[in-house]
Amino acid sequence: MPSPAGHHTTSSVNRRGFLKTSLGASAGILAAPTFAGWLAAADAKAATSPAAFVDDYRTNVLANLTPETNAVVRVLGGMSTVWKTGGAWNTGTPLMPEVLRANMRYCARITSARTDAQAKEAFLFDRQHQSYAMIAGLGPLADLYKAGAKAVTSITSAPDGTPPTKIDDAVPADAPAGSALGAGSHDSALGKVAELVDTLRGPYASGNPAKYAYQYPRPWRMNEDSEVVDTGRTDALGYPVYESDVVVAPQLLRQRSTSPTDDGGFPSGHTNAFHLAGLAYAYAVPERFQELVTRALELSHTRIVAGMHSTVDVIGGRIMATALAAATLADPANAGLKAAARAQALAYFQEKTGATADTLYAYAHSAGTDSDPYADRGTNVRVVGPRLTYVLTRHGRHSDLTVPKGAEVLLETRLPYLDAAQRREVLRTTALPSGYVLLDGFEQWGRLDLFAAADGYGSFDTDVRVTMNAADGGFGAHDSWRNDIDGQGGLTKRGTGTLALTGDNRYTGGTVVEDGTLVAASRSALGHGDVRVTGGTLEVAGAARVRGSYTQAAGAALDVTLRAGHKAALTVERRVVLDRDSVLTLRLDEDRPPAAGATVPVIATGSLRGQFGRVTVASDAYRAVPVYAADGLAVRLLKR
Q1: Phi and psi, residue 560, nearest 5°
Q2: Out of 426-435, 490-499, 565-574, which region has the weakest mean confidence (pLDDT)?
Q3: How far apart are CA 13 and CA 229, in angstroms?
Q4: Is 560 found in the same domain as 479?
Q5: Do the domain assignments include residue 279?
Q6: I want to staple 515 with a disulfide (CB 3.0 to 4.6 A). Which of 353, 394, 483, 536 is the partner?
């Protein structure tokens, strides 16, 4: 099981989880000569193609320190574009000085502006078991999780200054019997979830082989030019003083390693652990998927605030965790465990909250920002975006992403109504653009934007047919796609479930509703093509625009909400064709309903043909009299 610091301990490693000095001294020398040749060969598409990461992730062990032998070292290969590993820990060479200089300047700026409260927070998440720290991302479900999993920590506050000794997490003496650190006990009511977290953080998830392979020092050992300069002095605690503008948080000064050979900065082990735990929880509790992704990125940022890691370290930790999580979840050996963890979490939280599978999402988002720091979606978006790239700037033309093999498993429970190919397309169309060094390494795992992917497609490059069944419950019964969707393809909605489109959509292939409900939750939700409602219901939540023609067949329904003083609920640029057996349902806005006797516009168009067979008002107090014209439809609301 991982230690609280996120490193794995075996007989061949020291107490910090690194190789003993006898091997560590040669690790950088073993790795250094291979990088340039391997990358050149990869760029030239050498005859010996490396295996896909998900098929090769078990090679991530301390015996393998080269990209040829270790899948994690390979996917982190973008780092070798900016940094050439030296023969020792302090002899590396910047290959892109401008990137690494920006990296160090960022770290210096963050640590110099750090407040006392931020320093204490950085200590808390440095010392607390990472799997436990991630639980807060569950929001209103967090305390229920801790109780059910028997998850505990002894690190609940930070000292005002430097503590007299090193501090490690432990099970408190007064903890209930059977309690465990991290994700909790495997024998608890949420034991399968805890086991899934620990499995993702298992024996092949350590960042230590990559640390030895890259030998990139921690920021507090480097100056602005990424050079290591030992001043020959020691601080009050007896640690060597390096020429650096990066200041370690006072609470963590004793947590520094005294063996720089065994203490590489890239990739960040804590960051790797945060994201691995977060993606495991997100698989089991997808109702909090985006909030858990946000939490992982926020906790990872505290590594920079602490002065313990740099931006490139944190980016590397995220990349390796994304690949490792996908590989572990895609591994057939874990198929039963991941299914059991999801089922256990769903059953447990329904029992404890009284929610159903269809209402659990609402419960999981029922708290305000006073108790759930991730309750504001806009804030989450602003947190996530910059931390996917940090100081990196984009260069070169856009290159489409080939989604890494197996990556689609990361969305398996969040988008359960899509098949594997569709989930891959979601990942592709929401990915970060190419051209960011570090993100463009082998298989380009760093380009995946899981926060955006949880909001559905970013583009319909071909026609998309989605089937959602209400009987499946949860996201199958109701989901929202919040991205701004473009592309030349169109959307066909099938099945009895409900899908809401909320973005500023520009896809041109048209929209078809065959069954269930499609909600147009923004004015441009329906894109730039024709709209055909051949069955089911098109629901217009406020006002929507159809840039082509609108056709509604027999038995199909249009459901609109009317508000006093507003223009037509549905504006159609071309023509409207209505079957005489089609249905119009009218709802009155709760805050500003139209007055009785008012004539309210419903459809505005260039040409209207046909009439609704039935017009109903979702209120026993009113009835509606339709008023048809060549350019649209209005209704007169009358009291019954």
Answers
A1: -125, 155
A2: 565-574
A3: 27
A4: yes
A5: yes
A6: 536
